[in-house]
Write a structure and sequence with these properties.
CATH architecture of the largest domain: 3-Layer(aba) Sandwich
Number of helices: 11
Shape: elongated
CATH topology of the largest domain: Aminopeptidase
Bound molecules: zinc ion
Strand content: 25-35%
Largest sheet: 8 strands, mixed
Radius of gyration: 24 Å
Number of domains: 2
CATH superfamily of the largest domain: Zn peptidases
Number of strands: 16
Length: about 400
């Protein structure tokens, strides 16, 4: 067990990787109905009460040991094999976004300003199908599968909440697996990327204070809005001038809160935004430069500033050895798919916090179908995906789990 805990590769067998494709295909009508039900009734971060209830009920009906209320609205369920063996974690997310859906499908969101615009309705459906397929193999299973249905991925708070509620303890997983439907890739393509795959995210908030006054007498005021404009412009030099060209990073100012009258110079301005990086050293360098630029500009303009930078998630980093094993296994069970290892995203994912503690892999399942207009980006009010991706995702994930426990 000790060796397993530090080296999940040791108990992987590509011969154990069973092809679940036909089994999952028989679940397809059920999966579509399930996904559409989740889609009609989306719930945002930490409000996933109906969603978690359905998930917990279905897992309990399959005979799994189910725990609810983990990390507020999260669900954990364990499928125990008949024999002793490793523990494989399968994680998915449950939350929707505060977006008003603009699609006109029969399964359009019934909840005002709530929408599954990231595909998490699909992820839950996939993982429930994986549980259904694996339950049938229980008699031959050595080890156990721990299913994590996580809340609040979109605000990068759910993984943290579940971890602090003990979701990764008893049983402690040896390997962790997860996926994301990905509309940046066409249906039939799968991205398995060794090493860093999705960026780490920071959120910043800067309050710049000057001295308000009459807009017609700017000489009597100290204008924080003009100062903020200089700060925003100067921050653009961090990525272009301070980050090495071979590294990638983003510094985006996305929101500005200030006065509301045309003839008043406001007293203060608050700006918000995000930093995205793939490496700790790059992040630290950006934070240092951010602070120096802010201090310099604000001082020169006669204002002062308070800054708050919060680390939301670390980068998603896949274990290269596990990637290699999955790549070989996937190619044999699903040779008709196109596999890519050169895809990464500046978007962030709190699966990163799980992968930091349990080695594993997070992969993208291409879900776009341009001919059917199913290629709007994630978080767009017209986002939707090709439901055939549900079968691909579930059969790959079930096959990957089987390589460790069957
Ligand atoms: Zn999202
Ligand atoms: Zn997402």
């Amino acid at each position: 067990m000790f060796l397993r805990a530090i080296c999940p590769q040791l108990f992987y067998t590509s011969t154990g990787m069973k092809d679940f494709r036909s089994q999952v295909e028989s679940l397809y009508p059920e999966m579509v109905a399930q996904r559409r039900d989740f889609h009609r009734y989306p719930e945002i971060a930490f409000e996933e009460m109906r969603t978690a209830g359905i998930v917990a009920q279905q897992l309990a009906e399959l005979g799994l040991e189910v725990q609810t209320g983990v990390g507020q609205t999260g669900v954990v369920a364990v499928l125990e094999g008949r024999q002793h063996g490793p523990t494989v974690l399968v994680r998915c997310d449950m939350d929707a976004l505060p977006i008003q859906e603009e699609n006109q499908t029969e399964y359009v969101s019934r909840n005002t300003n709530r929408m599954h615009a990231c595909g998490h309705d699909g992820h839950m459906t996939i993982v429930l199908a994986v549980a259904k397929a694996l339950v049938r193999e229980r008699e031959h299973m050595h080890g156990q599968v721990k299913f994590l249905f996580q809340p609040a991925e979109e605000i990068a708070a759910g993984a943290k909440a579940m971890i602090s509620d003990g979701a990764l303890d008893y049983p402690k997983p040896d390997v962790s697996l997860g996926l994301h439907l990905w509309n940046e890739l066409p249906l039939g393509t799968v991205a398995l990327v060794p090493g860093p795959m999705m960026a780490g995210a920071d959120l910043f908030q800067v309050k710049i204070t000057g001295k308000g006054g009459h807009a017609a007498m700017p000489n009597l005021a100290v204008d924080p809005l003009l100062t903020a404009a200089h700060v925003i412009t100067a921050l653009q030099s961090i990525v272009s001038r301070n980050v090495a060209p071979q590294d990638v990073a983003v510094v985006s100012v996305t929101r500005l809160d200030t006065g509301d009258a045309f003839n008043v110079i406001p007293d203060s301005v608050t700006l918000y935004g995000t930093i995205r990086t793939f490496r700790k050293e790059v992040r630290e360098h950006i934070v240092d430069r951010f602070q120096a630029i802010l201090d310099g500009v604000v001082t020169a303009m006669g204002c002062h500033a308070e800054i708050d930078i919060q680390a939301l998630t670390t980068p998603v980093i896949n274990d290269p050895a596990i990637i290699e094993q999955l790549r070989t296994g996937f190619a044999s069970v699903a040779p008709d798919l196109a596999y890519r290892d050169d895809v990464n995203s500046m978007a962030s994912e709190d699966m990163a916090l799980i992968l930091e503690r349990v080695p594993g892999v997070f992969f993208f399942v291409g879900s776009a179908n341009a001919e059917r207009g199913l290629n709007y980006p994630h978080h767009h009010p017209r986002f939707d995906f090709d439901e055939k991706a549900l079968v691909i995702g579930a059969s790959l994930l079930a096959s990957a789990v089987s390589a460790y426990v069957l």
